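Look at a sample.

——
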Amino acid sequence: MHIALFVVLFLFAMYPTYVIRYAAIGAVFDHDGPIGDAVSVVGSSADILLIMCYIVMAVIAFLRGRSNNRKWIAAFPVIAAVFDTVLVFVPFVPTVMMILTIVFGCLPKAASEPVGDNSKA
């Protein structure tokens, strides 16, 4: 996958994660009934949409990682999904994971040989 295509696709998949979270928070505060009902309904819908976005981001990161020998960058969106849906009280971790995914995804192809002594004995 080309770097520009990776960045554009990844940013398009990443943007809804911020909009969904802010929309869910706004919907909870606009709800007229008991706050617990709003949190459970809006929260579960938002989490499903968030997980779908993070799955798309993980696939995009894996495809880019496969082309530059860094398949492990697909782990960053998975970590971000955990912190965005389960551990929501830890701020900025999803954003940092997304930035790391983009940075490592934009790096050129990594050497496939292990680092060490390359001498032919």
Q: What stands out?
A: Residues 28 and 39 are 6 Å apart (CA to CA). The chain has a mean pLDDT of 80. The chain has one domain: 3-106.
